[in-house]
Structures are given as C-alpha cells and as structure tokens.
C-alpha cells in the first residue's frame, strides 16, 4: 500500500512558509516607513536650477511650484520693436511639475518640463499689426522661450522682433544711415541715380558700384565720382566693411573731407564694401533741392556709428620759379593750393570704441612763378662760357619740372588710389621738389595744435 499523505502536516508547513515570507517583506517595508523615514532626493539633485537635495517628492513639488510662480511674476516677456516694446502674456508659458519630477535624475541637474500655449500669442496681434504678426516666426520664438523658462533664467526676458520675422519684412525697415553732397554746376548724376537706386546688398555679401554701372565709361566721370563719394559717405555710418576705395591726387572742392571715393572704369578703380550683418539692406538714391542723397535702409544696426577725422595736417605748397627774358615783372603761371593728410575713424556709441578706416593724403599744388632774367653782356658771356651753359641747362630743367607739375595737378582726375588700409600711393612730383632743394623744409608741413574732429555728421541709428 502506498503512503498516506498527512494533509494537516502539509498545510501546517505551508502556513509557516508563507508567514516567514510575509514577515520578511513586511518587516523591510515597516523598517523603511517607520524606522528609516520617507524617501528623499540625493545630494546634487536639481530641477530648473532649484536644489532638491534631501527633499521628499511632495516637498520638491511644493518647492518647484513656489519657484515657478515667483519666476513668472517677476519676469515679463518683452518683444522689442522699432520705437516700442510689446509685452507677451505670461500665460504663454506652462510648467508641468509632475512630468519634471518623473524625469528627475538623482544627483544631477534636470530642466523643467515647459509647454508654450501658441494660441495665446494672438493677444499681441493688435499691438504688432496684422501684417507683421503674420510674418512672425512663432516656432523659433517658442523654442527660445522654452529654453529660457526650463532653467528659470534670472536675466530679463527680452527679444528683438527683427530676429523672429521673415527676411525682407519691409514693415520693420528704417533708414540706418544717410549722406548728402551738393551737386556742383554742370554735373548731372541722374543716370547713376537710376542705375543704383533700390540696389540690395545681401547678408554677408559684397557690393560693387561698377557692377551697377556697366556702361559707366560713356557717362559723365564727374557724376560717377560724385555718386561714389555720396554712397561712401553713407556707408561710413554703418558697420559695413570697406574693401576697396580710391581717392584723387588732389581732393575736389565739391566733395567734403574724408568722403571722397573715386571710381574709374578704365583703371578698374571700384568702390567695394561688405555687409557683415545677417539681414539685407537696400540702397536708395535721389536728387532733391540740388543735392545728391544716398541712404541705406533696412533693420536697425546693433550700435550707433559716427565719422570722425583726427590728426589733420595742412601741407603748404612750394613755389617753383622759372626765369625768362620775355617778361618784365613776375607772373603767376599757376596758383598753388594746400594739400592735407588726416586719419578717418568710425566711432561706435559715442566714442566708446573707435576703428581706423583710412589715412588720406592729398598732395599740395605748387605755385609757379615766371620772373624776369636780364640777358648777360657779350663780354661776360664769352668770359663765363661754361657757367652760361650750366645756367641754360638749369633753366631747361626748371621748365621740364614745370610741365611735369602741370600734368599732375589736375584736381578733377583721380590719379591716386587708397585701399582700406588708407595708403593712397600718391607722391609729390620729384622733379618739382628738386627745384626747391634750398627751400626751408620746416614750412612744408603745418600741424594743427589740437586734433581736429569732424562732428558735422549726426549719429546714425545703428543696428
């Protein structure tokens, strides 16, 4: 016969096993809840910059609730426009504290879970204007708002509307710089006004004046010179980088100091500069009240720019004397005029910073006089034959230098160039200088006792 199973003993043993298992589990739970206390976060645990070390989950949620409420009350969200600020509603930002605590990393820092309620953007539509509101890149703005809110950044929340609109949003355009030159008699710049008006210089791209005046060689060179100088004057009051610019040997009287830019097709002399900004700018040109006006239009620049001239020196002309038996009193063959040299600076935010743009040098125009020289007697001529020949040679040499001086003194032509480093490659006529070796050089350059600053230009609103 088989063995009989003692069911009473079996159930007794099973009950004892279950009891021991339950005591093991329950005892650990009882220890954790009664003796060890509630579970807390490890040292170094933080959410949104709020330290949760040693806090329970309930305490952490209360701490985060207080911090986010205080942050929203003390941090207005501002959208800066041209002349005003628009306040974005605080209801845009919604903190999800439950999810933030679920995603917490023990002993490390975690961001807050943030949601942006896009429909609440519509509250600013009337202030911004429907056309401009429809061009807002809300997705980009949402992304930046989430990043700022997720760390409860303590800095003020301000955004520029120019960073969150479609490129070329003309509703936000303004004149960032302007320059005007009076049109001299006999010069008609209307051809060039038509050619370059509305020209656009793209973001991080270069501008070449000759590209907008392909048939410039058949036009009035003086008008092209005037247009280039006016554009250059407007460009100086921006943060554009000057890459190529040329000047004349003698500055034309109708172009203000520091603003000349000579463009010559036949010599491949151009005016070139680079737009270093992330947005496009439009060049506008017009003739008004006898003046040529050039202005740059686009988004505001980050700073205000002015133009200053410093270390200006006047270069006195020399007098070249020619002798002749055909005149009986001194005659002025060519009136002289002073030259000049100076440094051109771009000042930023009222001289908080300055940048040297160029150093311009314009040579003086020599004064040429013709004076009477009597004919020597035949006796002295025969007795000083070699001296007479030498004198004749010297006289011819002077005449040659006079001709050379005349050829180089045409102030209407652009004879010298200057790159962005300011060197222009011009030199005084060496043969003319050689006729004045005995002249006192101390009077050749006159320095002003103080630095000269050109403050005739008002500040231009910078980007």
Explained architecture:
Helices cover 28% and strands 26% of the residues. It has 463 residues and is of the alpha+beta class. Among the domains are: 119 residues, no CATH class; 132 residues, no CATH class; 72 residues, Single Sheet (Resuscitation-promoting factor rpfb fold). The C terminus is likely disordered.
Features of the shown structure:
single chain, 463 residues, alpha+beta, Resuscitation-promoting factor rpfb fold, 4-stranded antiparallel beta sheet, elongated, disordered C terminus, Vancomycin_resist_VanW, G5 domain-containing protein, Glycopeptide_resist_protein
Largest sheet: 4 strands, antiparallel
Rg calculated over all Cα atoms: 41 Å
Q: Strand portion, in percent?
A: 25-35%
Low-confidence stretches: 380-463
The neighbouring-strand order within the major sheet is 9-15-14-10
Distance between the termini: 107 Å
Shape: elongated
Structural class: alpha+beta
Number of strands: 23
Whole-number mean pLDDT: 78
Helix content: 25-40%
Counted by DSSP, the helix tally is: 11
Pfam family, one: VanW
Region (Disordered): 374-463
Biased composition (Low complexity): 377-388, 403-425
Protein name: G5 domain-containing protein
